[in-house]
Amino acid sequence: MLGRPKEMEGVLLVDKPRDHTSHDVIARLRGKLKMKRIGHAGTLDPMATGLLVVLVGKATSLSQYIISLDKEYTATMKLGVTTNSQDADGEVVETRPVPPLTEAQVKAAMDTFLGDQYQTPPMFSAIKVNGVPLYKMARKGEEIEREPRFIRVMSWELTRFAPPELDFRLRCTKGTYVRTLAHDLGQKLGCGAHLIALRRTATDKLNVAQALTMEQIEALPLTELEKHLVHVRDVVPGFAP
Question: Which residues pair with 56 in a beta bridge?
Fold first, then answer.
């Protein structure tokens, strides 16, 4: 009698496409790999693209460790327009003229966000209060008090100054809402802002340059796809499932 085939195990780096939820990616991978024991370490908003760290098989036990690692992003924000979700997926709630800012003024404002701080999560988030995700309350027009979370911004670099658009590169701790940083920077600059593009480029030493797109994944035979799995010990030395 033949035993069950050995289940795949490892870390798969996926370049998440825009307009897909992290759950959508996992659902497609479950269909591809024909297995249920798959998860991810760190949600990306539907609008965001980039590195989604997918855990396959016994590697799912790494989830909390990888979620805790520092993240890096590139993004674009638009000054003068505020939305209810703090990004381009939301509804516009206010427009204001953009003042004649200089690049030095913007950089100086960004520098005030460096270091340890508390950030209030947006209403449009998956955080649950009494078992209900905040975004479900937000869609009903409800707003409740949220507990601020401790975060750290290690670096925030302006990479393109073209008002009303600003491009930046950010390195921060887990749980940081990049769209909230953009929103808060817009408030500090006196005109409001929202995020129009976001890409996660790295989680600690794991880089999006190593990732496969969903199209690449679905085109590969399983035997070839398995070769792209990163061994858990290469992510967490000494890991023993």
Answer: 10, 38
Q: What six digits make up the tokens of 152?
A: 């750290």
- Which domains does the chain show, CATH number per domain? 10-68+205-235 (3.30.2350.10), 71-122+148-203 (3.30.2350.10)
Tokens read off for 121: 């999560």
Amino acid at 27: A
What angle (nearest 5°) sits at the alpha carbon of residue 127, between those of residues 110 and 89? Answer: 60
**pLDDT digits 0-9 by tens, 8-64:** 899 999 999 999 999 999 999 999 999 999 999 988 988 999 999 999 999 998 888
Backbone torsions φ then ψ of 51, nearest 5 degrees: -70, 115
Determine the Cα–Cα distance for residues 137 and 84; give it in Å rounded to an integer: 12
**Among 190, 199, 203, residue whose Cα is nearest residue 167:** 199
Q: What is the pLDDT of residues 187-211, one digit of tens each?
A: 999 999 999 999 999 999 999 999 9
What gap in Å lies between CA 188 and CA 112, rounded to an integer? 10
Whole-number Cα distances in Å, 12 to 41, 53, 100, 140: 11, 6, 45, 37
Question: What is the set of active-site residues?
Answer: 45
